[in-house]
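Observation: inputs received (chain + xanthosine-5'-monophosphate).
Thought: call the complex predictor directly.
Action: predict_structure
Action Input:
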Amino acid sequence: MQGLPMERLTLLYSREEVAGRVKELAEAINRDYAGRELLIVGILKGTFVFLADLIRRLKVPVIVDFVGLSSYGLGSESSQQIVLTKDLQVSIEGKDVLVMEDILDTGLTVDFVLKFLRERRPASLKLCALIDKRERRIVPVAVDYVGFELDKGFVVGYGIDYAERYRHLPDIHRIELEDEQGREK
Ligand code: XMP
Ligand code: MG
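Observation:
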């Protein structure tokens, strides 16, 4: 698929593949949480499409809330400062909480979220990531449910953006950036 002039998109996971994995993840979650109520915490904004698809396949009772975060680069990736910009509206104390993230990259975002949620004493706290991109991991994170494992690359579509664009695409694509001479960056 064609992106903007400097941005080349190539199909990575088709909408059918994504739907298949979402169904399998939901089945595993249904089994693991049978008889319990699940509180899902989506990390904005990248998870909204994934979350919307997954929750419609859940058979356990579900509460949904979101957190928003901003990260400020302080030079290098490992020194990123992450700040909470939107807190939860519900209490998670004593609840079975499942955090949903679009892509795990360095692990810094999810590590930050899991740490502050743990302080609020949920009964359990698990993590579901659509894509686990391991190459640049800085903080080790235990992922309980993974859609796809990816070595490297920047991806867009299915809620995931590049500079806020492409979230609406139904499939997931790799995005490659070219400079004005058409060379890959
Ligand atoms: P980490 O794990 O590095 O992730 O704290 C930070 C945020 O970066 C986003 N991310 C991506 N977003 N395409 C995107 O649009 C990508 O390939 C990609 N890799 C990481 C991710 O949303 C996470 O919240
Ligand atoms: Mg994100």
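Thought: report the result.
Final Answer: Residues 43, 46, 102 surround magnesium ion (ligand 2) (CB under 6 Å). The beta strands are 7-13, 38-43, 62-74, 76-86, 96-104, 124-133, 145-150, 155-156, 172-177.
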